[in-house]
Structures are given as structure tokens and as C-alpha cells.
Amino acid sequence: MAIRVVITGAAGQIAYSLLYSVAKGDVFGKDTPVELMLLDIPIMMTALKGVAMEIQDCALPLVKDVVATDDPDVAFKDADVAMLVGAMPRREGMERKDLLKANVKIFKAQGASIDRVAKKTIKVVVVGNPANTNALICAESAPSIPKQNFSALTRLDQNRATAQVATKLGIACSDVKNCIIWGNHSSTQFPDVTFAKIKEGDTWVNATTKIKDDNWIRQDFVNVSNRS
After folding, report:
1. What is the 3-state secondary structure (H, E, C) of 54-121?
2. How many Cβ atoms are within 10 Å of 148's Cβ, its own excluded?
3. Per-residue model confidence as pLDDT tens digits over 29-58
4. Does 216 participate in catalysis according to the annotation?
5. Domain 3-152 -> CATH class
6. Which residue among 130, 185, 198, 226 is the active-site one?
7. Domain 155-225 has what CATH class?
8. 73-86: per-residue pLDDT in tens?
9. I need a surface site. Which of 104, 121, 129, 221 has the fewest CB within 10 A?
10. Domain boundaries, the chain
């Protein structure tokens, strides 16, 4: 049975790169058919229809349907997965408060649509920055969907923090877990090792008891983790 996957901002460059990985089975498996629901704003519909035709031209065996639409209720209807790539970019001279206001409108509307028409088991990943804020807005706007079904893809920052701890202790990244990034991807985000764990034999111990270097945690760790 095919899973229905929504990709927003689907006429944009990021979504364009993502689409083929989803369509080829790199994301959900080589044996999992997909229905691609491509969502963008009305002025992007000509470009979006071109993207849909390109997917169709590839005749990929896992793609059972491709729908290009500017209507969120059409896109999210019975959706299993939503990849929210589209967001208002911060333009030169734009105040952060103006960016947040623009994205509130976008993600509030998408969250409400998800709440109305998507499967209650839908999994939502938010890519568009500020990802953490946008994910929160979307989740709050979809009260019937479990909050744990929403994720913000700030993985770069989390991976960077994990790698810094692993390097500091001379261990593998796989032996570090639960590093946390507070805030959005920016110079003001805050990497946190308070809840981080280090694998020691068959158990996990608090990372700070192994690092034993408050100066590194407060300065070097934060500065390196927050680089662009």
C-alpha cells in the first residue's frame, strides 16, 4: 500500500533535491510505493506543475501518483508524512519579528489543515527556518495530532554538538546521546550538554561528569557549535 507524502515549497530548490530521494525509495524503502502531494503557493504553480511532470517523466516504479496543488486541504488529505520545506526566507533588511509573523501565518494554516484532513498518525518534519519555532506553531495548530509526531530538522546543529563532545572525550559519536540545541539555527542558539549521556560499558552516564571542564562547556563548546 502506498504512503502519502506531502512536500511543501515543492517548487523550490531544496524540495527539488529532496523529491527524487523520496520518489526512488531512498527515504521510505525500495519496496514502499509513494503518492507525492506537492504543495506550493499560487504564484509558483507553473513551476510546480513542471516539477510534477519531471517526476512523471522519470517513470519511477514506486511513484503511484503525483499531485501539484496550492490548496493545503488537498495536499494534506489522508497524508502519512509531511515534509514542511517551504517557509518565508529572511530577506535583507527584514526584522526578525517580521519574519516570525510571516511564518506564523504559513505554519498556522498548514497545522490547521493537517488537523482537519490528515491521518491522526501523520509524522511531520519541519525544514523551513526558523525550524523549531515553525514546528511549535504547526503542532499547536494541530491539537488532535500527538505532539511527538512533530520534529524540527535542526540535525546539523545537534550532530555538531555531539561531535564536539565525542572529540573532547576521544570517543565515537555513537557513544554520545541526548545533546540538545535550544532555539533556532542561528548565532543565538544554545547547545546544551546538561542531559547528554556517555556510554560507559553497558550503561550511560552523565556527560558533564566525564568532561569535567566547565570553561570548555561554557565557551569553546558553545562557540564551535554555533558557527554558521
Report:
1. HHHHCCCCCEEEEEEECCHHHHHCCCCEEEECCCCCCCCCCCHHHHHHHHHHHHHHHHHHHHHHCCCC
2. 8
3. 999 999 999 999 999 999 999 999 999 999
4. no
5. alpha beta
6. 185
7. alpha beta
8. 999 999 999 999 98
9. 121
10. 3-152, 155-225
